[in-house]
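Notes to self, GTP 3',8-cyclase:
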Amino acid sequence: MLIDNHGRPINYLRLAVTDRCNLRCFYCMPEEGIQYLPKPHLLSYEEMIRLVTILAEMGISKVRITGGEPFLRRDIMPFLWKLSEIEGINKINITTNGVLTAPLVPELKKLGVNSVNLSLDSLDRQRFYEITRRDEFPKVWETLETLLAHDIPVKINTVVMSGKNDEDILSMVELARDQNVSVRFIEEMPFNGAGLRPDQIQNFWSYGRIMDLIRSAYPEIYRLQDEPNSTSYNYQIPNFKGSIGVIAAFSRTFCGTCNRLRVTPTGVFKTCLYDDGVFNIRDMMRQKLSDDEIKLLISEALQSRALDGFEAERNRKNLVSESMTTIGG
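result:
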């Protein structure tokens, strides 16, 4: 079992397989996009399998595949099958924007994917276009319907942005009335390639503000018992099939139970979303370090892990401004 210097067990890896995305969500990257890296700069599938195998031997049991958009990477499905065969990995989850996902759902079901997080920031096609800068809402909706038809647990992730989709909050809540989905609202973060915007600071939709609005429409809503290490505060509305959650990603109130590590598409090893990376696992593998040497470096990194996202941000060399697509969802 991996234990950090604050006594927190670590059993969860978020692995970004690509920095590429087929949407241009303004809260994630600039309108012109980012400079994508050549393929040799990314971790190869073989390197990722080796990394996950090493981490599984150290106690990691859950892997979330992120991007960018993971289904943009060629041959992702054979990689997922190999990942599912690693001893010790008992949960594989995926975060996707849903544009390319629907045709792959039957195979994901067969593979045994534990759950899918689907990014969906508006149920209005025009607002979806304005947020993502792409007219792809019908494909995302098809993915949602297909996932539900195949009984794959779905969490819908909605980033709440003032003046962009705040009028969608209550309609998103209604998705959980007749569908067994978890609708989760996420505080907007500064990982957009430019840093915090003035309007984001002035009209910020905090966890409390989001819940105040939901309670005003559904006063009978009540708090659920959160799962261990949950990043969301979870709620139930009587007679709703699904649940509601709020992720205080900017307020960072969930850091005390954080059980996750992150590896970016280029192999940067992060012990916190808000840090700027500890070392590069890709370079170490290509320098022919042994598995035992890599394990030692990972263990040592966890003994100087930041207490929370605020400490990690203070320790950075540069201000937070990178695009979320380069970090991994």
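- The CA atoms of residues 24 and 32 lie 8 Å apart.
- The longest helix spans residues 45-58.
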